[in-house]
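Can anyone check this?
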Amino acid sequence: MTSVLRFAAAICCLWLCSVVCVVQSGSRDTDDAIWLLESKMMATSNSSQLLMVPLTLIQGAASKGAVCLDGTLPGYHLHRGFGSGANRWLIQLEGGGWCNTRRNCIFRKTTRRGSSNHMEKVLAFTGILSNKANENPDFFNWNRVKLRYCDGASFTGDSEDQSSQLYYRGQRIWQVAMEELLSKGMQKADQALLSGCSAGGLASILHCDKFKELLPGTTKVKCLSDAGMFMDAVDVSGGHSLRNMFQGVVTVQNLQKELSATCTKHLDPTSCFFPQNLVSEIKTPMFLLNAAYDAWQG
């Protein structure tokens, strides 16, 4: 499995967050930069060569209160595995920053980051999600899933703002998505990898042990956080821009009760949204991939 994760790291460097963190210029959001790169690739590639996977909305989610910021259904893209990968699952949690004030959460719900009404109906599966053995030799025939991100808090919140008609239900989205994937065969997985990019990389850390608990004890489970190790540190301007951002997210979405109880016993809630204060208590094997130079954390 070590070689698998080494290759996953290489694939992610080539296709996902880490390189984008280095090369993007002026972008506030790594995942949006990735989306732009993929859009350009699709525009210049023969569309018949790309694997296009449709969006599936989780029909039973609304009855459980598991909805996007605007109240629409959450969704995912699934491409089935085959052969030796038929009982192996790779889950990728989509990234896309956070909303840290009521105002930008209200704006966010008018975008694909807060409403399935605005999500792409099909997505190209590339890199670690590719079905081409020459591009993705370790995972090309696994069941590969991209879980769309529409809650604004790394799949963590469970509250709402009735006056603004905002639903902070990331934790419930995570739960109903996992229930649906388990019912589609993931409960029989012999290997499973939870991955994520940027804000999704943070989510893969927050949910790593919970993911393992969902699966049989015989399943080999590991996690991969790509560009998700956000640090509580002084930035180049001498400020604490990420701490200010995360404090807003924790406050506006009332995340205190959803964060690690072990952490919040001795640290403030904002500190317990930073992965540096969480990784030591994670029991499931985890691979952390971060660029040496990261525009987000400069």
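Reply from J.R.: I decoded it. Residues 201 and 228 are 4 Å apart (CA to CA).
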